[in-house]
Write a structure and sequence with these properties.
The chain contains 22 helices and 6 strands. Helices cover 64% and strands 6% of the residues. The longest helix is centred in the first third of the chain and has 27 residues. By secondary structure, it is mainly alpha-helical. About 4% of the residues have low confidence.
Length: 521
Amino acid sequence: MKIESAERFACALALVVVVASSLVTAVVRPIADPTEGRYAATARAMAEGGDWVTPRVVVDGRDVPYLGKPPLAFWCAAAAVHAFGPHPWAVRLPAVLFAWATVALVASLARRRWGARAGICAALVLGSTPLAIGVGHAVTVDVVLAFTITLTLASFARAASSRLAGYGVFVGFGLSMLAKGPIGVVLAGIPIACASFGRARVARLSALPWASGSALALAICAPWYALAERANPGFLDYFFYREHVLRYLTNDYGDRYGRGHDYPYGSIIVMFVVAALPWSIAFVGAARRALAGGEPVARLAALWLAAPLAVFAFARNITAAYTLPACAGLALAIARWRPGRAWAAWPVAVGLALTAAAWPGLVEGAGYPTATGASWLFAGAAGCAATLAVVIGRSPSSTVRLAALATVVPLAAVAGVLALRPGLARDSSTAAVMARCAAIDPAAPVTFIYRTPGSARFYGGARVEPIPDERRGARPPIDARLLVAQRRHWARMDATWRSELRILDRVGPWIIARVAFAAGG
């Protein structure tokens, strides 16, 4: 069916806003702690150190092997840093590419099965989901895992008619093992197993090339696991048993790299509903219709959506990013049955309210990148919300209504995050601190007191010298290094040796100091 000009315009506008929100945020926003900072620093250390087998991370002031995650995300980020330099946009570039490759796979699957309108709608829903916007440009393994799961399931949807697609299933399995480990195989395997039985079969399991496909998957992932165990004896036991079995069963699983989360059972569903607003409002109805409709790929989409929520509903050590694979299934389900006028109208009002609530934080403290820029962001989001509320109320096309929502959601999401997290602003980030340290003394080592943010390690590289855990709060080395502490940590220092420090500058919540009688002090 031909797409009308109004639909083309609405979808084009929405696509421009969605893509711009992702790319601008990736370029402008400083590296955030703790997770993104840790992974960005790991990627830079890999690019500069040349060890592509063992990722490394600073824990308790010491540089140690990072055995908690496979290296695919680190390889890609390190390759970008090696090619373009240690810039935030460079280390994030692979995440952006993986995120939009995921959108392209989902859109292509919807277009092949249900037509051009469905393909466009699937792309807009997934691309404008707040969780996808937030994670899709960040240095994290979850966006890479979401791509590998999408590759696996999109290939499976075509496996009955294409032997090459059957091999794509196993390529996805192999890459999942390099992205995050066996959890990717589980999250893709559950929909495949469930969709292969019953009347609405996508493909028979027997149609997959199990022998040669399994060999291909092992060829992709097994060499690194063997090399990692050889370089770090005990890696396989820690990674498979502690990071997967015990991590799922208990919060106290012997984490070597920090503290685990401890949420009540079932919290993953609440996280998903909040992180995928406004699209998650329709997830129960869309999944129910997909299962009941009898269409094979729609049924696969419902299982795709449900699998992460069902698996992590019984885990307590979770984050909202774990639901990212479910967003692809949700996008397919909504694209198959686009929302009606009554459902689509009120989320725009919510978007306008969120943007209005973000206004004080944007102007007073966010600086993202400036108060003037924040003013334009607010004006643009408010104008879009007000205009699109009228469009949604009057348009007879469900595609136009969906595109209208996809236009306002990224703007409202960015504004809301900035209001809640002013620490993401440039003027309070470690990027600003490291830039000021370079201006004060470009050759001096920099030591963060009490805690070394991973983002500081990314921006400063080897120049940042952490303090071992047992020396935190103790007298610092008496040399020409620069000492950095948050103001709340500064107040906790021992008064005797704090009096020996000379404050050089203040940057946001940070204090830069130096031992008063050190060389060059």
